[in-house]
């Protein structure tokens, strides 16, 4: 990740850095003292999930760094749409931000018949926040296969087809499951659950055969040996699961699907504030301690410029549109 | 090291001054927010989470857990005193607790719920300590078909929650089932009965319904009878709070049964304390010699559910600690707190962080003793609260309900929902429809549907799955027996009544 020298200067000196960036801007902007009061961090998911935990981790660090509390406020519901809408429609003064996930930014517009906000226009990214791959996990007690090739052979031979779980219709685990089974010609039924806390017991109990779910929730049971990880969907091997091959290494090329998340303001926040926020996120996220803490939750801490985040959202949209069509999911 | 040795080490950890202090802070806060209607442990823990970043992981989790199980102690207080459940799982305590308070036995009821909570929680911890891995296995063997059969049994048992007209009771269960339909269909993602309101897409909030039909309805209903101050005039002495010998005798078995029911439901991911307390109430009414006493201040009706609810609060840690699978959103948040501290919850927690695991278990014991000591002297204070003029108390309660319901999802829409159900609940009181069956229908309905459809999806539409699986078959048989018994009892009752009428007609009373 790159970051401009000026942004770095801005935070290391802790000075009103917009003065160096925009010397000719209005006096109000030149005096940017961000944050001047507590910052609301709207999390579009309930407390306790990956997005929430990671947002809290970052908020805690930002509070220390910038001297103002970053207060997490959960606004769950409607597949994240309520919270993403709340971020998009909040006052663009730099004191409301939130984690915007790949779903809210690059998928939901193809999934939902209508969205209350415009993912391409209403959101001003600050910086990438994290990414985590999906993992193809099978219950060790019920599935004989120890590698992906054997698993595919086993799945194809299974009478009546296999079942895969996901945390709900239209989620990345559902979409990647649909992509996987259709690409490999596996006869499979999608069984939606209300979250990994339901999917994992169903896997361990042998009710369903596999899940291509977000890695984070599966780390404990993989580490405990109850679950076998056959492949990860990131481009490279994942640091906390160094023995698990990528999809490409396991024989399924072009299968890079990660869940990611960016910190974002509503559109209209002055560029000086966005730059300063991005620099602060970089500074707290690049420390080895923070990288390590994120990895323990199953995610990789990211940082970067607003432009990089926007570019990633735009780049992935065509792929997700295609996968949504393939899965047949359509939500009101 | 054996379990006892490990537990001893856990006590050493939990007894350090810092951990003792945070444990006390947790259970104190828990009791407090449990008493306040609507404000639950989820909102409290998520607000207090930042505080825990700066203390050691064990200390943090001891405090957060204290809030969680402390809240299940306090939840029944307002149910008993004001017919206003502090938490959804305490809604059952309204059924018999409030009549007891009306009879001037509020102190006894509060004393008994405190003892029942302590018994349930203590036994729950024993079960958690000794059988955690085994119970986790049992919970895993429950498939969708088994869950469905279990919920069906629950729904049939729900019929016993009704006190008045059975037809009205069934109507309320069905109405509850209908309300449970609102929201996004999990299987297809279709919106059902949401009227294009995004706030309804995850269904109606359980807390909002419970607070509305019990709490707000009670407040509205009190408008006509504000001068009625009989409850408030009673003197509170230690003596008036002490249960009689008969109370003890009537309560100890229900407490044990309640603990059993609660421990079981607590260990199942996704079932939880609310279902446990409803179920144990149904069990008590089924085994009682004289079920007609229920709803009129039967002490079993508060002792059993209260034990169940607290036992569930302890055994809910089984899937969380042994598998890293949170049973409910509060557990998820506590796992989050561990992760933020850099500790990976899961099967290896016990071996990798023994001081955390056993320290936490030991803190459960200490916390429950603290709760006992904390709650018994507080009973007088709570009962004294009834002396506050209703014109001040009730508006304050309405305010707390609104804050509490808002705090769950930070959603103003939920506050409107509470008010809607308040008015509905008032109409229901006037027409003698009972709220408890509605609440149970609302909780069980969506779960049943979800598990039924999942079971059908997995069996590719083959109904045989319900009797091929032993657990499911067992539950279904019990359900069938219960139903047959109910039908038999009704027919026999009708025959007896008819015989009585006939004999009355043949032998007209003297002097007629």
Description:
The complex is a heterodimer of chains A (332) and B (512). Chain A is of the alpha/beta class and 332 residues long. Chain A folds into two domains: 5-132 and 257-327, D-Maltodextrin-Binding Protein, domain 2, CATH 3.40.190.150; 133-232, D-Maltodextrin-Binding Protein, domain 2. Chain A has helices at residues 5-13, 18-21, 27-30, 50-66, 81-88, 102-111, 148-157, 172-184, 196-204, 215-223, 271-285, 288-297, 306-327, and strands spanning 39-43, 70-74, 96-101, 123-139, 162-166, 188-192, 210-214, 227-232, 258-266, 300-301. In chain A, strands 1, 2, 3, 4, 5, 6, 7, 8, 9 and 10 form a ten-stranded mixed beta sheet that branches. Mean pLDDT of chain A is 86; it is low at 1-30. By secondary structure, chain B is mainly alpha-helical. Chain B has a two-stranded antiparallel sheet with strand order 1-2. In chain B, strand 1 (183-184) and strand 2 (191-192) form a beta hairpin. The longest helix of chain B has 37 residues, at 470-506. Chains A and B meet through helix 4, strand 2, helix 5, strand 6 and helix 9 of A and helix 3, helix 15 and helix 20 of B.
Topology readout:
The complex is a heterodimer of chains A (332) and B (512).
Chain A (H helix, E strand, L loop, with lengths): L4 H9 L4 H4 L5 H4 L8 E5 L6 H17 L3 E5 L6 H8 L7 E6 H10 L11 E17 L8 H10 L4 E5 L5 H13 L3 E5 L3 H9 L5 E5 H9 L3 E6 L25 E9 L4 H15 L2 H10 L2 E2 L4 H22 L5
Chain B lengths: L2 H12 L2 H19 L5 H8 L8 H26 L8 H12 L3 H35 L3 H15 L7 H16 L1 E2 L6 E2 L13 H17 L15 H4 L3 H23 L5 H15 L12 H16 L1 H7 L5 H12 L8 H4 L1 H32 L4 H20 L2 H19 L4 H24 L6 H4 L1 H37 L6
Antiparallel strand pairs in B: 1-2
């Amino acid at each position: 990740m790159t970051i401009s020298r000026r942004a770095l200067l801005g935070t290391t000196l802790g000075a009103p850095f917009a003065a160096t960036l925009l010397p000719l801007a209005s006096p109000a902007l030149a005096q940017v003292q961000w944050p001047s009061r507590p910052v609301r961090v709207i999390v579009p998911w309930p407390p306790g999930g990956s997005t929430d935990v990671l947002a809290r981790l970052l908020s805690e660090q930002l509070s220390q760094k910038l001297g103002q509390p970053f207060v997490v406020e959960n606004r769950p519901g409607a597949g994240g749409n309520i919270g993403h809408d709340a971020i998009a429609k909040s006052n663009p003064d730099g004191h409301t931000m939130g984690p915007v996930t790949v779903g809210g930014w690059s998928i939901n517009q193809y999934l939902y018949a209508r969205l209350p906000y415009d993912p391409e226009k209403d959101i001003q990214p600050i910086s990438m926040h994290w990414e985590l791959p999906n993992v193809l996990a099978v219950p060790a007690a019920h599935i004989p296969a120890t590698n992906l090739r054997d698993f595919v052979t086993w799945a194809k031979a299974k009478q009546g087809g296999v079942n895969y779980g996901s945390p709900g219709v239209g989620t990345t685990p559902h979409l990647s499951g649909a992509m996987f089974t259709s690409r490999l010609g596996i006869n499979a039924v999608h069984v939606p659950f209300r979250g990994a806390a339901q999917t994992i017991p169903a896997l361990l109990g042998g009710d369903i055969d596999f899940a291509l779910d977000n890695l984070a929730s599966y780390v404990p049971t993989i580490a405990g040996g109850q679950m076998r990880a056959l492949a990860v969907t990131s481009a490279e091997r994942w640091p906390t699961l160094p023995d698990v091959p990528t999809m490409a290494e396991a024989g399924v090329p072009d299968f890079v699907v990660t869940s990611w998340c960016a910190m974002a303001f509503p559109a209209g926040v002055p560029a000086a504030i966005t730059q300063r926020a991005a620099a602060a996120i970089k500074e707290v996220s690049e420390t080895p301690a923070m990288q390590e803490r994120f990895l323990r939750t199953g995610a990789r801490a990211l940082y970067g410029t607003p432009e990089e985040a926007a570019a990633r959202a735009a780049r992935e949209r065509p792929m997700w549109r295609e996968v949504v069509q393939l899965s047949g999911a359509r939500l009101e | 090291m054996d379990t006892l040795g490990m537990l001893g080490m856990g006590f050493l950890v939990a007894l350090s001054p810092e951990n003792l202090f945070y444990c006390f802070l947790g259970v104190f806060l828990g009791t407090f927010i449990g008493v306040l209607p609507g404000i639950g442990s989820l909102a409290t823990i998520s607000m207090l989470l930042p505080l825990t970043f700066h203390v050691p992981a064990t200390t943090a989790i001891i405090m957060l857990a204290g809030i969680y199980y402390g809240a299940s102690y306090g939840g029944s207080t307002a149910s008993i005193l004001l017919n206003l459940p502090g938490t959804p799982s305490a809604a059952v305590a309204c059924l018999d607790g409030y009549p007891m308070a009306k009879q001037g036995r509020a102190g006894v009821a509060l004393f008994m719920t405190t003892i029942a909570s302590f018994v349930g929680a203590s036994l729950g911890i024993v079960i958690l300590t000794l059988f955690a891995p085994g119970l986790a296995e049992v919970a895993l063997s429950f498939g969708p078909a088994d869950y469905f059969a279990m919920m069906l049994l629950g729904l049939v048992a729900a019929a016993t929650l009704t006190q008045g007209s059975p037809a009205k009771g069934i109507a309320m269960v069905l109405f509850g089932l209908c309300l449970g339909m609102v929201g996004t269909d999990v299987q297809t993602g279709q919106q059902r009965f949401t009227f294009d309101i995004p706030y309804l897409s995850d269904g109606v909030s359980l807390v909002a319904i419970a607070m509305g039909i019990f709490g707000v309805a009670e407040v509205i209903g009190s408008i006509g009878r504000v001068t009625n101050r009989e409850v408030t005039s009673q003197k509170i002495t230690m003596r008036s709070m002490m249960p009689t010998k008969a109370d003890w005798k009537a309560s100890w078995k229900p407490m044990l049964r309640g603990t059993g029911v609660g421990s079981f439901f607590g260990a199942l991911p996704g079932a939880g304390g609310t279902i446990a307390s409803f179920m144990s109430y149904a069990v008590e009414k089924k085994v009682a010699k004289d079920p007609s006493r229920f709803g009129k201040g039967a002490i079993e009706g508060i002792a059993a559910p209260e034990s169940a609810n607290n036992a569930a609060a302890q055994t809910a840690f089984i899937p969380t600690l042994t598998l890293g699978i949170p049973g409910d959103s509060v557990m998820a948040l506590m796992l989050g707190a561990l992760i933020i501290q850099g500790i990976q919850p899961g099967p290896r927690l016990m071996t990798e962080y023994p001081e955390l695991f056993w320290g936490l278990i030991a803190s459960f014991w200490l916390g429950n003793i603290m709760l006992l000591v904390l709650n018994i002297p507080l009973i007088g204070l709570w009962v004294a609260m009834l002396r506050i003029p209703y014109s001040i108390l009730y508006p304050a309660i309405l305010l707390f309900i609104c804050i509490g319901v808002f705090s769950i999802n930070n959603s103003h829409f939920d506050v409107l929902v509470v008010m809607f159900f308040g008015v509905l609940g008032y109409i229901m009181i006037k027409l003698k429809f009972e709220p408890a069956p509605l609440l149970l229908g609302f909780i069980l309905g969506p779960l049943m549907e979800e598990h039924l459809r999942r079971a059908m999806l997995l069996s590719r539409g083959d109904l045989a799955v319900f009797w091929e699986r032993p657990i499911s078959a067992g539950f279904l048989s019990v359900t069938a027996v219960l139903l047959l018994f109910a039908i038999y009892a009704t027919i026999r009752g009708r025959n007896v009544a008819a015989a009585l009428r006939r004999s009355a007609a043949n032998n007209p009373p003297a002097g007629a």
